[in-house]
Structures are given as C-alpha cells and as structure tokens.
Amino acid sequence: MNDLGQDLELRLVRYFTVVATHQHFGRAAADLHVAQPALSRQIQRLEKYLGVQLLDRVPQGTRLTPAGERFLPRAQALLQAARQAELVAREQAETERIAIGYVEDLVITAAVRELRRRHPDAEIATRHLSCRDVGALSDKRVDALIARAPLPLATDDVFTTPLYEEPRMLVVPRGHPLADRASVTADELAGEEVAPCAFETADWASYRILGAGVPPIESYEDKLELVASGRAIAVLPVGDRRSSLRPHLVTVPIEGAPPSQVILAGRKGDSNPMIRNLRQAAKAVLTAPAA
Questions:
Q1: In 217-255, which positions are buried (b, 16+ CB within 10 angstroms) versus exposed (e)?
Q2: What DSSP state is assigned to residue 80?
C-alpha cells in the first residue's frame, strides 16, 4: 500500500535523485535548501510509498540499494519528462495568441468566431486597418492580415493564402451614361484614365478610381465623394456595400474583369501556430458575400 493512497510526488522523486547524486544527506540537504532531518523524512515517505528501501546509510554517507539502483534512472527519466511537459505547456500558453488585422470593408467575424471555437483559451484580438496601414504586418503590430490582393508588401517577407474571390462592379453617379446599363465590359473601361494611388499599383487593383485629371485620393469616403460629384467613376469589389449607403450612387456589374481576391497574409518564418490555425478557420468559413 502506498503512502496514504496518494499518487507519487515528483518532489519526493527529485529529493531522492539529489541524495543519490551526492551520496550524502547533508550535502543533498544543502543543495536542496532544506533541513537534513526534513529531507530524511521525505525520503522515508518515498520509500514507504514504494514499499522498498532505496538508500542505505553507510559511514561515508549513503549508497543505493539494488532497488534504488533500478529506480534511479527511471526517476531521472520521470523528472525529465515532467520538465518537458511543463516547457511544452508553457510554450503553448505563450504562443496561443494572435492579433488579426483586416482591411477596409472586409468582415471577418465568421473566421474569428470559428477560431475562438476551435481554440477557446487563446487570446485573439482584431484590428481594423485602412489601406495605408497594411504595414502593420511588417512591423508586427498584427500577426496576420486579411486583405485584398495585391498588397504593397515585399513578397520575400510575406506568404499569402487565397481565401475567396469576388467580381467587380462599376460605381457611377446617378445620371451617368452608364448608370442604366445592365452591365459593362472591362474593354469599355480600358480607355479610362486611372487616378494615381500609392496603394493601388496593379492594373486591376481591388479599388480603382477612373477619371481624367483626378488627384491622388487615399480616403475611401473621399473617393466616393469624388464619384458622387461626377468627377470620377470607381471600380470596386461587389462585396463592398459601402457605396450602397449613398443614394446618389449606382452600381453596375462589370463583365470580363479579373476578380478581386481576398487573401490571408503572414510573415514568412513566423512560428506562431495560431497563424496556421487562423488560416484553417478562415478557409473553412469565409466565403464571398452573396450578390
């Protein structure tokens, strides 16, 4: 019968291994910063629990009994395993946190909710960013970014995972010659001058302002105001519903234009496992909004 029917205490096992190493109760007690009589009592507790004598007292100190010699390597392995388990648990606790950035019109609630369902103990924060703030990924203000491609980030520094695609739509003011059309083609817009924007460098960036003599515009609301005033027209993803809040704007489907791609981006070499977990959750639940 073991001591009081309790489980084996790792503290007692550690005491035994220290005594076995020093082969002397006095030196072991000093190493453990406990009183020698107390250490002797703890070793006796361990021996009572195991039902076998582990140490013999000799004039020079102590020596292992045959049972002690067999128990020692297993005791050391047990302590090592316990330490490894502690380190793994602490490492997991330290890394189960993530800050997720998301850009402009995107709604990532479903992905965040799914991630929290899968990892209820993780610390999950979100941060809404403008198109000017995608550098938050590079400077580590966020751990992952859900945004529209292309990103103004060096491909050597980030990885991207496609999540879903959306068609494009044309946004024009009411009374515009294209406002009553059922659709327009990409070829019909090919001759329009693209307004410069430092954050929209690709031929078919997710957001494009078309119009001659239009100055660079960064604010999304300022872009819509420019369109509403009749000075420009805009190409937007159909999932961006913000233009529908303005009664003076009309949307027209665009045929033949490449889709807008929503992606998840992270820093290459980042070992945070929550980034992989977010990728799995996002791919499972994020889809293009219904037209």
A1: beebeebbebbbeebbbbbbbbbbeebeebeebbbbebe
A2: H
Greatest CA separation for the chain: 107
Tell me the C-alpha distance between 78 and 8, whole Å. 11
**C-alpha distances in Å from residue 10, one per residue of 4, 123, 265:** 16, 31, 44
Task: With H, G, I as helix, E, B as strand and everything else as coil, classify residue 153.
Answer: coil
Each residue's pLDDT expressed in tens, for the chain with a length of 291 residues: 444 446 889 999 999 999 999 999 999 999 888 899 999 999 999 999 999 999 998 988 899 999 999 999 999 999 999 988 887 776 666 568 999 999 878 899 999 999 999 999 899 999 998 766 777 898 889 999 999 888 877 778 899 999 999 999 999 999 999 999 999 998 888 877 665 554 444 444 667 878 877 777 667 788 888 899 888 898 989 888 888 888 889 999 999 988 989 999 999 999 889 999 999 999 999 988 766
The CA-based angle 12-85-90, given to 5 degrees, is: 115
Give CA angle at 24 (23, 30), nearest 5°.
Answer: 125
> Which single residue is written with the structure tokens 């327009």?
184
